[in-house]
Amino acid sequence: MAKKNETKGVKKSTSKKIAKPNDNKQKVKKASETNLKSEHLDLTIEKGVHEVSPRDVYGAPTGKRFEYQYEQTAKACLQLLEDQENVCVFCEWHDDFVLEKKGGAHAKVLYAFHQVKTREGSEGPWKLSEIFGINKTKKTPDATVSKSFIFKLLRHFVDFGKSCEKVIFLTNASVEKEVSDFFEEITARSRHEALVEPHLDYFQRIHIGYSQLIKNLDKDTLFSLLKKLSLVAEDLPLQKSTSVFRSELMEKIMEFSEIDLRGSEAVAIGDELLKLVRQKSHQTLKVSVDDKILKKIKGVELEAVLDLLSLSKSGYKVLVTGGEVDAIKKLSRLRRRLQESDEKKEIPDEIVKAMCEHKVNWESWQRKVRHEPDSRIDLTSLKIDAAEILKGWSQGTVKTTDLPTKSNALVVKYASAFEGYNLTKDLVFGCILSIAVEGD
User: How many whole angstroms separate alpha carbon 243 and alpha carbon 174?
Assistant: First the structure.
């Protein structure tokens, strides 16, 4: 039924002559007439989330609707494992959650602000007026504009300037077709003049409303900001969201850990991550604080996620510093190899760090040697011998305590082949570890 009404609405707007808003011809209420404060937009500024006090005091309440928000935040925390550019996830600070990533030439840090909204199926899909705060039948904006979801998201550009990389509206519900069509139209066009009806009309109404609240927000700037806006509508009933979340989270955890976890173990890790997100979300701050303090109180950083997966933080740093790609997966494979070894016990963090250093040093040494034509055959032969030691280690015929002796034997065997390259037992051990984590 909703689809029929929605389709009629679109047809009606295209069949009748649309009263297009025009800055010169149409009388528009000023911000002062609607008792709304006008703000200044400066996209050249660069501010961090610790430098700006939140517009609202965030400290999330509880309830099923908010559980969906925490679940989405927890999923964002796993993005810290996927991309080394991601730094931290802030919980209930300036928005429902904020993903911080390393900056580049244009900004020191970049933020993706996420606003999460839930809706029961009985309430129907989100309407354009609800999301953007515009009324398609009124020619002048009112106070509802300042309360709209998208306007609140776009205000992050006012507060953080070029540090705000993008804003995301995320919901469990669906949206009306005119909403998704409008987002698609914005994405498809390179300039606002190219928008077609009824989307051009929507855009002009949005501009009239928002420009009364944000100074110097011309149409070109508004269009560029809307291009940085994303819509994620999952169309998922709240009662099913938790089971879907658990399934997705468990799959991600098992993917990153690469360890033979039982389903219950993966769920337990996911529950611990969710618990951490709730704890961070419920902490309240009224003013901006130092970046390190803010991350400690409201942020989830990579180290916390590594702890939940029982992965070495120092080992991870060694691999990343050494230029290793997929450092998380390699660290997980190393942990698995250690668990499969004869001792079958947790290895101290400093030992894991040392092992990672051996691997990194081996990779550096190998890069130098493999460019020498006379050394390539010997290098291949060394790797074959190292792989045999690894095989014995995995099968239990070679004990962990035997590895230094086995490694030293290969140093003696290949001393003449690599004369002048200072082959050591630590490098050979690094070769064994490299095969262990790269050869899966």
Answer: 19
Per DSSP, the three-state class of 288 is coil
For the residues of 226-273, what is the DSSP string, one character each? HTTEEEEE----HHHHHHHHHHHHHHHHHHHH-S---HHHHHHHHHHH
Q: What's the burial of 282, exposed, middle or buried (CB within 10 Å: 0-12/13-18/19+)?
A: middle
**Strand 39-40 with 214-215, pairing:** parallel
Q: Which residues contact 3 (CB under 8 A, 6 or more apart)?
A: 177
Closest CA to 50 of 84, 85, 98: 98
* Cα–Cα distance for residue pair 59/299, rounded to 1 Å: 13
Backbone angles phi, psi at 132, to 5 degrees: -100, -15
Q: What does DSSP say about strands 109-117 and 97-102: parallel, antiparallel, or unpaired?
A: antiparallel
| Both tokens assigned to 391 | 């095989």
Assess contact for 334 and 356: CB atoms under 8 A.
yes
Q: Do the strands 229-233 and 164-171 form a parallel or antiparallel pair, or are they unpaired?
A: parallel
Contacts of 137 (CB under 8 A, 6+ apart): none
Per-residue pLDDT of the chain (440 residues; tens, 9 = 90+): 434 333 333 333 333 333 444 443 333 444 444 445 678 899 999 999 999 988 876 555 556 778 899 999 999 999 998 888 999 999 999 999 999 999 887 788 999 999 999 999 889 999 999 999 987 777 666 667 888 999 999 999 999 999 999 999 999 999 999 999 999 999 999 999 999 999 999 999 999 999 989 989 999 999 999 999 999 999 988 878 778 887 888 888 777 765 555 566 778 888 899 999 999 999 988 777 899 999 999 999 999 999 888 888 888 888 888 887 788 888 888 877 777 765 556 678 888 899 899 999 999 999 888 887 778 889 999 999 999 999 998 888 888 889 999 999 999 999 999 988 999 999 999 999 999 887 54
Alpha-carbon distance of 257 to 329, in angstroms, equals 7
**Type of residue numbered 237:** P
E strand spans, 13-84: 39-40
Angle, CA 129 vertex, CA 128 and CA 134 arms, to 5°: 120
Token pair listed for 175: 């949206």
Which stretches of 33-192 are DSSP H helices?
64-77, 79-82, 128-132, 149-160, 177-188
HSE (CB half, 13 Å, CA atoms) of 6? 16
